[in-house]
Amino acid sequence: MQEEEQAGTAEVERRARFGALPERVLPQDMVEERPATPRDPARDAYDPDEFAVRYGL
Q: What three-state secondary structure class fits 12?
């Protein structure tokens, strides 16, 4: 009789812990978007027209 109570209690505890699936995770929540490299201001400072005026004329 005591074994049946322990088995019943263990089953109730197992169902309380594992009885439900976790909440669904949306695909857009699994993706993180960020730039591959940080912005370099020196790279964006190049002006081809200014280069042509300084060194080409």
A: helix
CA neighbours within 13 Å on the CB side: how many for 40? 5
pLDDT score at 2: 60
- Taking only Cα atoms into account, the Rg of the chain, rounded to an integer number of angstroms, comes to 32
Joined tokens for residue 53:
């005026």
> Nearest to residue 47, comparing CAs of 55, 37, 38?
55
Please state, in angstroms and rounded to a whole number, the distance separating the CA atoms of residues 42 and 17: 56
42, pLDDT greater than 70 = yes
Residue for token digits 């400072």? 45
Max CA distance (Å), the chain = 102
